[in-house]
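ARCHIVE CARD
Drawer: 12
Card no.: 0347
Subject: one protein chain, sequence and derived structure
Cross-reference: see card 0346
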Amino acid sequence: MTTSRGKQQAGRKSGNGKRRQVAALPWRGEGEDLRILLVSSRETRRWVIPKGWPMKNKTAWQAAAQEALEEAGLDGVIEHTAVGEYEYLKRLKSGAARLVTVDVFPMQVTGERSVFPEKGQRTLQWMTPVEAALAVQEPQLRDLIVRFAGVTLPEEERPHPAAAPTPVRVAFQRLRRRVTALWGRYQR
């Protein structure tokens, strides 16, 4: 995450009003030796890839490379074209959640720094593509890692297609979002 508020604000919404972030998919090795680097998020400690908001005066891929440097101390060669995107729910300080779309740029890691801005705030772990895919919570990110690495998940680990939500479930989810947003206002 960038530290200056101005940089965070730049480019948060795309032309259609959706919130967008950029991410690096750090990798090294080939074939059986291919590894993906995951980092823990600072608040929830779940496994993610380095990501953040677009930055003023930087292209999307440059901002993704900057996030990889700040969050994981990585140097490398980053692709200028996204390999795909995924969506996740970003928790806001108010307690509410917003749907964010993340553009993912593969980054071949050529070096790891011993000192970087978020050192000590996150855990870093090199994993096989299957381990990385199974470690992340976002199904679209899991699928993106699998496609990028050209691997298949073990049959027992493949997700079952989600059934379409019933009208009652949709109403319950809306109610839960409203309660969560209201609860955040009272927590201040």
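Annotation on reverse: The CA atoms of residues 71 and 118 lie 5 Å apart. Residues 1-11 have pLDDT under 50 and may be disordered.
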